[in-house]
Amino acid sequence: MSLGLLGKKIGMTRLFDQQAGTMIPVTVIDVSGNTILQVKTPEKDGYTALQVGYDDQKEQRVSKPALGIFKKAGSTPKRFIKEFRFEERRSS
């Protein structure tokens, strides 16, 4: 899997392609505030991954284990957390 971003749809707009003479619908997504919370390694966790958080959350609405992850990363609590796994690269 490749690395991704978390975001929120904030609207729609359109772009005009002058060469083709057509309008192209475009979704506008706000991805500001993505934070890397954890880097998982095969030595420590058994697999390779990145944990990304998005959109601030009140501290009182977060569980204590999750709050520990945010504190360790030096981040404010996040509403959405997604883990992006990577394939192991084998050296030949």
Chart the SSEs and their pairings.
Layout: E1 8-17, E2 22-30, E3 35-40, H1 42-45, E4 48-56, H2 64-73, E5 78-86
Antiparallel strand pairs: 1-2, 3-4, 4-5
Provide an overview of this structure:
- The chain has a single domain (8-86), classed as Double Stranded RNA Binding Domain (2-Layer Sandwich), CATH 3.30.160.810.
- It has helices spanning 42-45, 64-73; strands spanning 8-17, 22-30, 35-40, 48-56, 78-86.
- The strands form 2 sheets. A 3-stranded antiparallel β-sheet has the order 3-4-5.
- The chain has 2 helices and 5 strands.
- It has 92 residues and is α+β, with helices and mostly antiparallel strands.
- Strand 1 and strand 2 form a beta hairpin.
End-to-end separation: 21 Å
- Using the coordinates shown, work out and report the CATH topology: Double Stranded RNA Binding Domain
Report the order of strands and helices: EEEHEHE
User: Could you estimate the helical fraction of the residues in percent?
Assistant: 10-25%
Overall pLDDT confidence: 90
- Could you give the order of strands across the largest sheet? 3-4-5
The total strand number stands at: 5
How do you describe this structure in short?
This protein is α+β, with helices and mostly antiparallel strands and 92 residues long. The chain has helices at residues 42-45, 64-73, and strands at 8-17, 22-30, 35-40, 48-56, 78-86.
List keywords for this structure.
15% helix, three-stranded antiparallel sheet, flat, 92 residues, alpha+beta, two-stranded antiparallel sheet, Double Stranded RNA Binding Domain
